[in-house]
Amino acid sequence: MTHKKSILSRRSFIATTGAAMAGGLMLNPLSVTSRPALLKKMRIAIVGTGDRALGMWSKDVAETYGDKVEFVGLCDINPGRVAFFKSATGFTCPTYTDFEKMMKETKPDTLIVTTVDATHSEFIIKGMEMGANIITEKPMTTDEEKCEAIIQAEKRTGKKVTVTFNYRYSPHRARVYELLRAGEIGEVTSVDFHWYLDTRHGADYFRRWHRLKEKGGTLWVHKATHHFDLLNWWIESDPVEVYATGMLEFYGKHGPFRHTHCRPCPHKDKCKFYYDITRNKRHMDLYVANEKYDNYHRDGCVFREDVNIYDKMAATIKYANGVHVSYSLTTYSPYEGYRIAFNGTKGRIDMWIEESNPVEERNYDEIMITRNFGTREFIRVPHGTSGHGGGDRILKDSIFKGITEDPLNQAAGVRDGALSILVGIAARKSCETGQPIKIADLTSIKPEVKRQFVARG
Ligand SMILES: NC(=O)c1ccc[n+]([C@@H]2O[C@H](COP(=O)([O-])OP(=O)(O)OC[C@H]3O[C@@H](n4cnc5c(N)ncnc54)[C@H](O)[C@@H]3O)[C@@H](O)[C@H]2O)c1
């Protein structure tokens, strides 16, 4: 994309999320303000005290929202990791390796689920049955049977599941949502969406549990759930059919040599993917110090024979409103980022991000609008300051500060969590069968032309 030729924006853009606060009033079911006893603190328990819980859902939450929340219990299958989590956060609540015992003894009203993907459904369902609303990390779960079980459990228990789709909250992506709603390019008819994971971050999926389909559902589910959720949200319609292809041809058994993990590896001097975990204190504390409990190697070899996920993927997705999407995911790119274009009846919106090795460092992202037979305009969106383009902070504010407005429809519940993974599950099935897969055949959710918004109350 050549920036030099660009005609800079006529609009001086103020981060979307500020403007976004002026919308319809809705109550967040998880928020403290929607509780009967206004001053009662949210009683939070966490299951899965690994990297994500530590970085996103622990100390920062306790410090920033301390008047509204309290942590009452921590649980992980790995006793060493949960003990480390407690000492690293300074939390004083009890720790457990038995989930049901934690739920019975600490009686949380909110359970944060940050375990390995394929185990989410177990804790989401039991958590609701034992009286808690759920905040779950993406992907909500990894197959259609577990997805249906969550849908039914939410109905049965009357509890609420919030899926933390932080990508929706980045100011850049929120701005595109506004432009599409404002009809800047007329009716959207198709979308080109290409995501590039680089040889650092992309490779990391092949080092960890994510390399196994039975743990993460393949990157169609584990990673692309973010992308499919963005598409569902931007397009404001439900996906109906997916045709996909995928291959494993770079990592796993295709590597030139292999070992179990990097530390004892005899090939470390010549391997481009050698990861010296001893230089990463956080990983040493979280994982290496606790290998004795689960034999899990955070510096696993990317060329292990057991890798059973795809490393390049492409899909065609049809939406109920007629929009067609061309999507691809690559896992060994020299730079990390994405390109997306919305083609409409009156023009086109392009956006692109380079998250690693950017050509130039800048504190904004751009959106390009090109109108048919007309002008080209560039809109600059300042970066947010927290993780994921500023999205993580806004997401946490919306949950813990009890923000009751959601004008950009960024809150996500079970239906959104389901429809994003169902695109990935359908894509995975399509790769396995060679057939297009209908979303309606997977669960009780029937796709609708106009997407249903989750009400925050
Ligand atoms: N939204 C995002 O941007 C984002 C970013 C990173 C991770 N995540 C999600 O967060 C979740 C956790 O990822 P992570 O990177 O922290 O992984 P991790 O491996 O660091 O942590 C997972 C933890 O779950 C524990 N665990 C596994 N099975 C368990 C069980 N049956 N009972 C109790 N504990 C169990 C493990 O011991 C580990 O401590 C994943 O679902 C991942 O998709 C989301």
Description:
This protein is an alpha/beta fold. Among the domains are: 26-166, NAD(P)-binding Rossmann-like Domain (Rossmann fold), CATH 3.40.50.720; 256-294, no CATH class. Helices cover 30% and strands 21% of the residues. The chain has helices at residues 16-19, 51-56, 59-64, 79-89, 99-106, 120-129, 144-157, 171-181, 201-207, 213-216, 219-222, 224-235, 281-286, 291-294, 391-400, 414-433, and strands spanning 42-47, 69-75, 95-96, 110-113, 133-136, 161-163, 188-198, 239-247, 312-319, 324-333, 337-344, 347-354, 364-371, 376-382, 437-438. The strands form 2 sheets. A 9-stranded mixed sheet has the order 14-13-12-11-7-10-9-8-15. The chain has a 6-stranded parallel sheet with strand order 3-2-1-4-5-6, sandwiched between helices. The longest helix is centred in the last third of the chain and has 20 residues, at 414-433. It is globular and about 65 Å long. The site of nicotinamide-adenine-dinucleotide (NAD) has 22 residues, from helix 2.
The small molecules bound here are: nicotinamide-adenine-dinucleotide
- Oligomeric state of this protein: single chain
Assign an overall shape. Answer: globular
**Main sheet properties:** 9 strands, mixed
- Give the helix level as a range of percent: 25-40%
Strand order of the largest sheet: 14-13-12-11-7-10-9-8-15
Number of strands: 15
User: Distance N terminus to C terminus?
Assistant: 43 Å
Based on helices, strands and strand pairing, what is the structural class?
Answer: alpha/beta
> What is the highest CATH level, the class of the domain at 26-166?
Alpha Beta
What is the architecture of the domain at 26-166 at the second tier of CATH?
A: 3-Layer(aba) Sandwich
Strand content: 15-25%
Number of helices: 16
CATH fold-type name of the domain at 26-166: Rossmann fold
CATH homology group of the domain at 26-166: NAD(P)-binding Rossmann-like Domain
Uncertain residue ranges: 1-29
**Rg of Cα set:** 22 Å
